[in-house]
């Protein structure tokens, strides 16, 4: 297999990243003990330590359920503007603190109801929606000193050409010319419109597809635009997830010329029982104990991210990029000045590396491979190597182990087994970072009490995960002073039907709890409220559902006990 830059270079590498949101997937991370929280953030973002992620994609909160919870908007109402709600600002600042060069990408799932003007579409009044999005980007910079590099349209929902053109114009009018539009964060059906609509082609910088399974087509390539897997992975933090992620990062380019990958979700920090629980590059679900788990997907990321930077170039297919004859793939990156290069190899087998999407079977076998270095990559005597062998039989895996590889007469010879990841590189700064062993797991501490006195106004209470509606800490008259209040005045422009079907919901703890609640419900404070346990569905599946519900209606001083919320 030739590795040679003398015939030119391939596409620009845009980076490997993770997605916080879609929705509330990072919620429990916020109130981890400071030591463990900083350790977790190091594993995700610190350069040359672990995952070293190069892109952080976040949800632009829309007061709407977006998979595992609803995330707060910066504008609950047209007259409202607040850039201290939610935790994505905090997440981005922590990422930037560790890696000042990280790229940020915002994408909405839902929108406050006023944005749709009484409709269930953000496109009905495009000037209103583009102003709403532009203010989020401007606020990120003005309040938090965060530069947003990319913005999307509407997660996994139809795009609208007029809206995209209006968004581009609004960004430019607000001095946000640097912000690149990624479209359409679903499938790649936007490609024909880009090819036939010059103004749309000018407005869209990057084509983003979800779960592309390393695939693109001739029409995608004909646009000449960067192609991204703008949401991918969706696997558990284990060896299967690591093999999936390594294969995806490599074969996205080897098979589909896809130059950016973003994993959903960046971390599993949600309650057990929510949809897609335990999907993530790593796991941190017990802020009360500080326990967390660093898994193979973190190190699968490191095989690429620690030895490249966005802006490096791929080599051409057949000259450093391709698939092995016995299965697996190899991808070569080179720095713009051609002083450094990195080859990443993976041999994930079908049974161990397939991801969320159903794919055709394929075979991978042990094999001997030889790389012939030429062009500016020649004249080396050795390369730094990092090696992972993932096992699935209960034996110990070898994870991100440093080695050295000899180069003899510009030739590298390797014996490859199945389910391996190799990095061969001139870069010398690779590191398998390690913090102390986290504390042991503990059950949620009971009895649980929170009077909300320690929170800033507008923040979300720890351990409470809103599922429909938006609950934030506010100050009121009377003995309680600090309370949580549901802030939505109308149904959102929903991403999931669950937002339109029933009452607002906030959850805490465990499906198996017995619940006792002491409340103060003013007569004019609400038409009704409820506490529930043993509820069958949560997250995007939240709806009038079986469980045990106790309703109180203050205005007429009645209550109902019911087996559903209907």
TrEMBL record:
Residues 466-562 form the Glycosyl hydrolase family 59 C-terminal lectin domain. InterPro entries: Aldolase_TIM, GH, GH59_C, GH59_cat, Glyco_hydro_59, Glyco_hydro_59_dom. GO terms for cellular component: lysosome; membrane. It comes from the Eukaryota. One of its GO terms (biological process) is galactosylceramide catabolic process. Belongs to the glycosyl hydrolase 59 family. This is galactosylceramidase.
């Amino acid at each position: 297999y030739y590795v040679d830059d003398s015939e030119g270079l391939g596409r620009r590498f845009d980076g490997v990243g993770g997605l916080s949101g879609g929705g509330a997937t990072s919620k429990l991370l916020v109130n981890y003990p400071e030591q463990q929280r900083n350790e977790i953030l190091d594993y995700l973002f610190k350069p040359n330590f672990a995952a070293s992620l190069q892109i952080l994609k976040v949800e632009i909160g829309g007061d709407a359920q977006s998979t595992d919870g609803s995330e707060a908007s910066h504008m609950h109402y047209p007259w409202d503007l607040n850039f201290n709600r939610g935790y994505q600002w905090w997440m981005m600042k922590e990422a930037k603190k560790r890696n000042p060069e990280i790229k940020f990408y915002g994408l909405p799932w839902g929108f406050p109801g006023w944005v749709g003007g009484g409709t269930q579409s953000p496109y009905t009044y495009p000037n209103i929606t583009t102003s709403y999005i532009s203010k989020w980007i401007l606020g990120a910079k003005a309040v938090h000193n965060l530069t947003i590099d990319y913005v999307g349209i509407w997660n996994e929902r139809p795009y609208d050409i007029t809206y995209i053109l209006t968004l581009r114009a609004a960004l430019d009018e607000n001095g946000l010319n640097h912000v690149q539009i990624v479209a359409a964060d679903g499938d790649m059906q936007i490609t024909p419109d880009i090819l036939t609509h010059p103004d749309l082609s000018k407005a869209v910088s990057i084509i983003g597809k979800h779960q592309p399974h390393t695939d693109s087509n001739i029409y995608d390539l004909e646009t000449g635009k960067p192609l991204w897997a703008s949401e991918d992975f969706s696997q558990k933090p284990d060896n299967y997830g690591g093999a999936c992620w390594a294969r995806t990062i490599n074969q996205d380019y080897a098979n589909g010329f896809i130059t950016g990958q973003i994993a959903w979700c960046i971390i599993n920090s949600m309650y057990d029982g929510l949809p897609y629980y335990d999907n993530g590059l790593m796991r941190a679900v017990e802020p009360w104990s500080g326990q967390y788990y660093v898994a193979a997907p973190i190190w699968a990321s490191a095989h690429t991210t620690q030895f490249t930077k966005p802006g490096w170039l791929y080599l051409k297919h057949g000259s450093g990029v391709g698939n092995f004859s016995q299965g697996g793939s190899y991808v070569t990156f080179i720095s713009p000045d051609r002083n450094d290069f990195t080859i990443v190899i993976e041999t994930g087998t079908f049974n161990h590396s397939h991801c969320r999407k159903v794919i055709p079977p394929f075979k991978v076998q042990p094999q001997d491979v030889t790389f012939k270095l030429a062009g500016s990559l020649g004249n080396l005597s050795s390369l730094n190597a990092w090696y992972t062998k993932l096992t699935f039989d209960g034996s110990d895996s070898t994870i991100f182990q440093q080695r050295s590889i000899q180069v003899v007469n510009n030739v590298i010879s390797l014996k490859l087994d199945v389910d391996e990841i190799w990095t061969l590189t001139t870069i010398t700064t690779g590191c398998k970072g390690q913090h102390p062993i986290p504390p042991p797991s503990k059950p949620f501490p009971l009895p649980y009490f929170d009077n909300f006195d320690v929170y800033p106004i507008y923040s979300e209470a720890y351990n409470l995960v809103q599922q429909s509606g938006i609950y934030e800490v506010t100050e009121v008259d009377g003995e309680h002073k600090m309370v949580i209040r549901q802030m939505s005045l109308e149904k959102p422009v929903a991403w999931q039907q669950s937002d339109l079907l029933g009452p607002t919901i906030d959850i805490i703890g465990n499906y198996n709890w017995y619940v006792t609640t002491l409340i103060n419900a003013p007569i004019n404070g609400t038409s009704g409220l409820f506490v529930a346990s043993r509820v069958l569905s949560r997250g995007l599946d939240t709806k009038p559902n079986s469980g045990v519900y106790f309703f109180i209606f203050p205005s007429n001083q009645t209550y109902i006990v019911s087996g559903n919320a209907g």
